[in-house]
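Bench notes, afternoon.
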Amino acid sequence: MTISIETGNGVCQARVAGEMTIYHAAGMKGELLSCLDRCTELEINLSEVSEMDTAGFQLLLLAKREAANAGKRLRLVAHSPATLEVLDLFNMAHYFGDPVMMPRHGH
């Protein structure tokens, strides 16, 4: 798992690559919250997330809550199939701003 961060004009863009799982959640938490502290808006690019479990999902919930508490905007962009699957599983796409959902298999 890697997070690359670019900052400009008060917007912090974090690109997550690899697994958002329990094995990486603690390290990711610090990086994302630090990024949120130093910007007015946080954009998390999920296009390269290969796997997400409930710990990764909880990390996104935490980031969303902390952004709201600080009066900042959090956007999730470029969702990978793995992230769409988890958001769909928990029926939470609306909470994060309704990403374009992929068709469900068998529907």
